[in-house]
Amino acid sequence: MVYRVGATLVWLGILFPLVVNAEPTASLGDKLESGRKIYNFRCYFCHGYSGDARTLAASFMAVQPRNFSASDPQKFPLEQMEKSIAQGRPGTAMPGFDTILTPEEIQQVALFIRDEFMTKQAPNTRYHTPENGWPDHNRYQAAFPFITGAIPLDAGEETLTPENKTGKQLFMSACITCHDHATIKDAGPIWEPYAVSWPRNQFSHRDPPLDAVARATPYAQHDIPPVLSNLTPEEKQGETLFQKNCAFCHGADGTGLNYIGTFLNPHPRNLTTPGLLTAINLEAVIRDGVPNTSMPAWGQVLSATEITTIALYARRAFGSTP
Question: Which of 12, 47, 109, 248 could form a disulfide with 38 if both were Cys (CB 3.0 to 4.6 A apart)?
Fold first, then answer.
């Protein structure tokens, strides 16, 4: 009688080992190196070669990529990581890779991230190596503090040593080509679109869809009035007057960021500025205008009642805008 017990055959009371042909299992080291290659090809652009998410791409994202070097592996299980890599992260720029990577590759890159960044806090692959054409990268050492953010780029000249000043000059003349998002203390005003010519013939600020170019510019969105409900009769009249008259410069949304408003210098007042409409005498501004600006006096055009309705509408439409 022959029967099997686990990996052993029993025949006439004699035990014979059962030979099983099995595929060789990849070692953990092989999996980590495979994960490194995948990460360096697909993930570094946002998460960085060192997993710290200090990248130019990350600086443009509202939701920052995860900083793996600051993540606790105990609070970020392997299964959760694999799910995030496979399915992406809703509400972020993280896409799903389940149609690009196999389940084995997803596991490999997750294992690599956990081992290299979370556990070892290792730098992964440095770009500035002899193999990449940088035989003596340390000769640029004076610029390193500006690249790493240890010294803000707008630090006062009086605080910089002679070596710092040399490093800053080097950074600005060479390193900034790739490392163009240095740390700064004061970012200054945010750039804004600025119109450079009047709209061409037949342009309508009140009906942007009629103009194909306006529809593709950053200005058209500001010619869409807010949708309000339960307006009083006075506010309704003010809405009509505002959108037919004031919106030409202030925009239908009150921001002054429509085409005409942006063209004017100084810009029309942004009525959505928090607290503005309670800090000024809006009726008087509408009636008397604002000297040295394009804001005219409407006192000879509109009645006192009409001016009041515009003020009521503006406070209702824009006064509570955060």
Answer: 109
